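User: Sequence in, structure out. Go.
Assistant: Echoing your sequence, followed by the structure tokens.
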Amino acid sequence: MFNYISGIITDKDHRRIVLENQGMGFELFCSPKTMEGLSVGHKAKIYTFLSVSERALDLYGFLTAEDLESFKVLNDISGIGPKTALGLAAIGSMEMIKEALEQGKIPSDVKGIGPKRMQKILLELTGKIQEISKQRSVGKVSVQDDALEALVSLGFLRASAKETLASLPADIKKTEERIKEALKILGRK
């Protein structure tokens, strides 16, 4: 929903900031690592993730798009919630996170990860790192994935959206064009 929000930091405590943009104050939960780089009264561009649950809508903030991507990968692992993913993402890159978990070096603000859960996280993380590496080596990450994520956010099933995007002619390269063409096809189904 939100990729990033730019504005002035108006409030900050040990786990969250308030970022004012166009007269609205957005509460963003951030890791201690992210908080170090932020000061009240300064302008900032924060990459965001909206977490939707039965009880709350929470925004999580990150200084870089890479940190946001690490968070998303961790948050997708079953048994890890956004708060745990936020703490683990603060470690750094996916490879650094994996190495820290293998050595048992978990940040102190990350709670509830015992030996069994750590093994499960490591197993899934290894698979996700290999998948990401494969996508990067093929070089077709962004346009296809951006179009797919846009269609999923509009309410289409991931499998149906993926199939539709795969059926589009190869000469349609721009994300916006791919989305428009896919919407025409999906609208007929």
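User: And one key feature?
Assistant: Residues 115-138 form the longest helix (24 residues).
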